[in-house]
User: Fold these one by one.
Assistant:
Number 1:
Amino acid sequence: MAIITKEKTTARAAPLSDKSLIGWLRLNLFNSVFNTILTVVTVYIIYITVEGLLVWGVIDAVWIADTRRACFAISLDGACWAGVVSWLDNIFYGRYPREELWRINLGGLLLVIWMAPLWLPRVKAKVTIGLTTVFLYPFLAGYLFAGGDKGLFMQIMISGAILCLVGNTLHAFIGVFTGKGLPEFLIALLGKKAAPEKSQRNILLGILAVCFAVVYMLQMGASFETVSWTKWGGLFLTLVISGIGIASALPGGIILALGRRSKLPIIRVLSTAFIELFRSVPLITVLFMATTMFPLFMPEGFVLNKLTQVIIAVCLFNACYMAETVRAGLQAIPQGQYEGAHTIGLGYWGTMGFIIMPQALKHMIPNIVGSFIGLLKDTTLVSIIGLFDILGMLRSISRDAPWLGLHKEPLVFGAMLFFLICFAMSKYSRRLEVKLSTDHKH
Amino acid sequence: MKFTTLLTSVAALAVMAVAGTTTASAADSTLEIVKKRGHLRCQVGPPSPGYYNLDAKGDWYGLDVQTCRAVAAAIFGDPNKLEIQSISSQLRFTSLANGESDLLSRTATWTMSRDTQLGLDFLQPNFYDGQGFTVHKDSGITSALELKGAKVCVTSGTTTELNLGDYSRANNLNISAVTFEDFNVRDETYLNGGCDAVTGDKSSMAGNLAAFPVPSDHIILPETLSKEPLAPAVRHGDSQWRDIVSWSVYAMINAEELGVTSKNVEDLRANSDDVNIRRMLGVEGNLHEGLGLSKDWAFSIIKHIGNYGENYEAFMGNGEQGIGIPRKGTTNALWTQGGLMYSPPMR
């Protein structure tokens, strides 16, 4: 028996939860006595926290004053941001000479220009651009920050870096407008498209050599005043240490992870020993070892500055952690992939480079970025061995005579700064994951 | 046969080379090393009010920093030929021992065990400190002996904590210590009523008290629990270097006693008849020779750094960067005014 109505049922209103805020609230927050109590209590807790923070940090706060005492004179209970404001240069740049700050800013700007093509559509050879950022930019930036005399090696690396930067940028512009790469474009410009591949390559190498010579000549004239590493500090130093750590951790980690899975016993044992040694010791111990024990082992007169020691320690430490992350990623790749690669005739490096690593790295992105964020935060440990990184600077404010005892505000400021940086990193990693995910949508 | 000879000669050469380098480096005195390097490496600690701090421009200032600057001025005639190293207290003596620092000028208490067992020599103290208590004024406490059963806030890991325990036991006070890593948190807890009193070096207490929201609500009790002579230190075994650092400090104390200041020093060098001043400033005699420095070593200290009193006023007293610790009648006054600041005669 079927019931068939000829009349249409009258359209009903949308459920309360979809229609109005009140409906949504009732459905989600107040749908039972217990939930109602929970909601009320939670809202109250949020209210007192936010209200307290707001009153302390904004409403009662003092923004302009010369000393902490002057802050107290205006408001006894509010935050005294004036101290943080007057120390901003220290917090961002450390003790770097104030008239040379443009060098740090320029270094940062160059990095942005260098990396920008990575985000632009239609630009080719992004991997090459990424690699040059890791291998050439540090020389340019290093000289920009430290200054002093350039040795022959530095001169060559700096020229290479400048050339590469210019090339990169041109390449990016050409890529955006024409969809071509720089070499392709140059050949077309010279009208040699028809020429054989070998002579095309010779032409390009010729252009490269001429440009290199020109840049080399130009850079010989320029030189910067030396700024001792002891003057580096603040957020700048934190970013330098963690930047180098991040840039070297991934290559180092991949090598160590492959070493640990190697079939050659010596390489496997050495890699495993190295990884386990560094992983079983806290970072602070590694830092102490690097700065106090290391000079004792060295011949007298051999002095490696403390910053270099710290950077090396951070790099080794993080490479070991990264190695385990990479190994985890490698283990997730099914055996069939290796076998498939062998079937089409790829050797070890071909298998790893074209088949295994690209898949494994994609799986590892959340873990890799997690380690990077950890690394960034771990670098604050260097303040314990006497480098004035951002945490060291923030803590020093409370010792400066005009701001004696001002310790909460700087730390709150530091927390917000770290949150911004780390949150941006984790957001970017999410985007990267989505962009790279080709299959297995969960 | 031939191979063995070759091996032996190579080994002999290597031993000679190593021996050669060791004797060469041992022959270099600290003064020579510093002069060759072109600047002094002076170790201070993480910023500590009054002694060594960073200002908003990123420059170091403070009483101990002035000692560093004085030694640099004595050697180079320029107080800025100086690298200040800020090193945590766990590493301070290691850094001096392994040659990373030439001189330790930080709030290290001169104790017998440190002086005799750590391979270093403590010199003339530039500040005599002692541990004391701060309490809320409205608690009505006027003596440390009234702190029976009190909760006292203290920073951990220093002699301060040990002294508190000793004092409590000796006087049957039954004090319970509440320990903190950071003195800011210690003070915050005290201000919020977490402790009845704070204990610490009296100098830093005075500085911190000045930074409390209402300083007049608190008082420092008169008792002093411990002796804390804070002195610069150098590596054991280099007497010339030791002399240079000691006499740089003495020169500042002596200058105050003789009334020589950074302002009048040039005038006095040119016109003074006082033989003590003339000797100190290198117009007469040859005091500089024993130190291996130039004739005007003390002159440049006083010209660039000033005498002890000027520096005390600027960084410990009521100067713009000072932390407001009174000097009159304390151990840090000159010996002529009842204090302990005493320099052997410069002649």
Number 2:
Amino acid sequence: MTSSTSASDRHPMTGNEMSGESAGGMERHQYDVVVIGAGGAGLRSAIAAHDAGAKVAIVCKSLLGKAHTVMAEGGIAASMGNVYPEDNWEVHFRDTMRGGKMLNNWRMAQLHAQEAPERVMELEDWGALFDRTDDGLISQRDFGGHKYARLAHVGDRTGLEMIRTLQQRAVQLGIDVFMECTITDVMLDKGAGDPKVSGAFGYWRETGRFILFEAPSVILATGGIGKSFKVTSNSWEYTGDGHALAMRAGASLINMEFVQFHPTGMVWPPSVKGLLVTESVRGDGGILRNSEGKRFMFDYIPEFFKAETADTIEEADRWYDDKTNNRRPPELLPRDEVARAINSEIKAGRGTPHGGIFLDIASRRTPEFIRKRLPSMYHQFKELADVDITAEPMEIGPTCHYVMGGVEVDADTQESGVTGLYAVGECSGGMHGSNRLGGNSLGDLLVFGKRAGEAATAYTNSLGASLPKVDEADVKAAQASALAPFEVEGGENPYTIQSDLQQSMNDLVGIIRTGAELEESLTEIEAFKERAKRMVVEGHRQYNPGWHLAIDLRNMLIVSECIAKAALARQESRGGHTRDDFPGPNAEWGTKNLVVNLNAAGTGVDLHEKPLPVMPDELKKYFETPAAPPPVEPVETKES
Amino acid sequence: MAYRLKMRIWRGDKDGGALGDYDVEVSEGEVVLDAIHRVQATQAGDLAVRWNCKAGKCGSCSAEVNGKPRLMCMCRLSDFDEEETITVTPMRSFPVIRDLVTDVSFNYEKAKELPSFSPPPRDADNKRRMQQIDVERGQEFRKCIECFLCQNTCHVVRDHEENKKAFAGPRFFLRYAELDMHPLDTNDRRELAQDAAGLGMCNITKCCTEVCPEGIKITDNAIIPMKERVADKKFDPLVWLGNKIGVRNKDNEGRTEL
């Protein structure tokens, strides 16, 4: 690596200019579309924008190919009908809406169900190697909340296959990638009319130098917020950057009270607490038992899913081989139901030695089957916990996994309330309502990634030569703000504040919530915000994780406040939001979303209610009772 | 169960550095990356280290632990004696950026040189058909998490910086093999693998296979079969004669040579 080079001589990996001659040590780039994030959503958006003719840049905090999409295990839900020909988008749409307890944006759920199959086929065109059916088609597996076996998969490492395929496609197309580069501000042109996006400002993690992208369209694809919780399946990157960037730019977020706690995370050893154990374990026959050996899920079948869930062990066990005459095992209820049930069992004192519940596939399937179908789970438990899952049960418990809430966007284009600002994937909101079905995330990334990339390009093209301008005063302010933690004397270590925030969110805004605890959490968040003003970092700007955390922590704080505030306001229990003081859903709350914005002073969060978009009659018919259609039962019983 | 672990961690940048001594509390079930994180959170806030998933799935936290190329997140402290000092250094084959973070751009450059998958049109019903047994060969190679430990270990570049230009390394031989064995790919990449990617420079010492955290049999299942495919094409006397006299003017099995 060279430390001083000419402006055109870029670092071969990162594209970093490393030039001391750039004005103010800051480099500038011009693009039609800038995508922030290089997971499935970011890569798919960038490919779509490129295909639509845009000059596009991908900016990501990690190396290319490391985003959290690699952690997705189960598969991509798409009604391709390869295993059950009866499956179609209408059934998938219905499953998605019911899984989200009808709080989904119906249009997003519809588009997702309609377009997911073709998005999966595209991956195959680009080199993905999915598992096959006997006929040589893409195989599809069972998952919680999905009526038919529907998840296109590669063993239990589907996310890795997806990200590698998209990464290789983006490289093939020659899309510019700025790796290990963090965006801290979306730039706005606040001239005539409403504010419009004019670019994005950030810094190279490697050198600490600033970088400015001038671009009329910015697509946020930054993923989730899990790092605000202590027990999480999410990595360090998931600090709510897109959520916070959007809010600071003036966009609103919806559904922030809905956080998905995945029922099955590892509980031991402590260092991997929260690490995901795929739902495929249950899809492939695994069951949940408490310390008394009881298969307890039969005690937790809610009214809403009674008609389609087996109520005896015998029927549940028959379902794996005969789906025509039997109903689904309760272990395959949607994630919110299973997570709550596990939580109740542990609270009632029927937990395992390490405070979890047993997930048992060893007594139900052969070692060969388990190793073939769940290779990375086998590996993960063997390497990290010394547990052989073909011989003994796993210990698992709920872990913060996914946020249903996110930037409020237009369903067809993914544009936020701010002109030129788009959000896609986990950082957008609406698609999954109050609870996401497993397998619907990967499809979400692909379907709406493509839509956002195309819409952002069309918008940029519509501007012609009159591009929004970056205000140099805003650039100065962004620089000052990023460097502030170096200016403090005798302040607090950001790692300590982060750790305290994670504990607080886990304790007070976790899987079961009460009004009093949520109020307490808001008080604590205010205190964290005060402490964060006095954060100090040691060392200098080159690859300094302490500084990076200090910057990300501001996003974690504002997003945490959104979650706590919305959770306090919603006085009911629905999907990923459970209130001990308001058990059960409330019909009136089922008609509205909660929307949050940054307040006028920029110091906190304002909240208001908004009516849910009304579903047109031709879609409503899928939810009429009692003949809840489409009632077609599978006629084939092929193993997927 | 907690105890004090003695660690030596390399600190420095491209201009040089040294091993620093640390004494950090660790507990049962932890891995080397946990210890590094605790040093970072309590003693050295600016200690640079790459990591993401902490579950052996993303391949970010590659380093050398007591001289062995490992993922720090899959390196359990229980495999070491409690009294033993654990030494962590950055991957040796790549230039250091800072502390444990290295410049792995070599790999991203090599990825760009590789011609991508090129399928025929879909079937009439808009689907594609492949048999499970045929995709499984490629699936093994696609388990690769791009930790680049194989690239770091391969002595062709580890000890010979000058070879980097002409040598793509084990990770990309995997990719060549994956595409060559893909049931639907329409390109013949054998010449390219041999000449441009430097497959011939590999003398199958299997060091790459040994360090692969995914247990991919890089040498046996990818490199050796690729070498055989190249040899069939280049050195089989009958194929050579057939090509020479025009009976068999191409040996691309219906594929397009790149």
